[in-house]
Amino acid sequence: MPRCFWCNDDPLYIAYHDEEWGVPQRDPQWLFEMLLLEGFQAGLSWITVLKKRERYRQVLFGFDAERLAVMTDEEIEERMQDPGIIRNRLKLQAARKNARAWLKLEDPAGLLWSFVGGAPKINQFSGRGDVPAVTPEAEAMSKALKKLGFTFVGPTICYAYMQAAGMVMDHTRDCDRYHALGGAG
C-alpha cells in the first residue's frame, strides 16, 4: 500500500499512519493526550514519542487532565528517573501546566477545531515539498493556546497536532489514505 513519505517500515508507525494520523478526532481525551505527546515530541522524531506512548499513558495517569493538573514536583522527579519516557523536566512540567489550562476550557474540542472552521481542511499535496511545517491557522492556534496558559505549543507543534487530529488532511495524493479521508482528484 502506498503511504506518505514520512512513514517508515516500523509496524507501529505504519499502524499510526494507516489508522490514526489524519482521521478527524473530536474526543477531548484523545485531543488532550495528543496535544501533550506533540509537546513531548518537540526537537525529536515522532517515532521516538510513538514508541514511548504506552509508557506515557502509564506514568501520566492515562492522560487524565484532572490528575495531571495536581501532579507534584516529587512525582515529576520520579518520572525523571523513568527510562521509558523522554526525561525532560520542562516537558513534564508543561504536561502539568497544560492540564491546568485544559481544565479551564469550556469546550476544548470546539476551541481546537475552530481554527479550521469546525471541519477538516482537505489539502491536495503531491509530495513532501508541498506539505508546510506551519500555516496561518497553526500560528493562530499557537498564539491562542499560549494566551490561555499552554506551553510547548509553538506553530510547528500546532500544525503537527492539526495533522494528527485530522483538522487538516495532509496525506499526499500518492498515499492510499488520501482518498479514504476525503481527498479528491
Descriptive account of the structure:
- This protein is an all-alpha fold and 185 residues long.
- Helix content is 53%, strand content 2%.
- The protein is built from 10 helices and 2 strands; from the N terminus they run αααααααβααβα.
- It has helices at residues 11-19, 28-41, 46-59, 65-69, 73-79, 89-103, 108-114, 136-147, 155-164, 176-180, and strands spanning 121-122, 168-169.
- A two-stranded parallel ribbon has the order 1-2.
- Helix 2 packs across helix 3, helix 2 (28-41) packs antiparallel against helix 6 and helix 2 packs across helix 9 (155-164).
- The longest helix is centred in the middle third of the chain and has 15 residues, at 89-103.
- The relative contact order is 0.18.
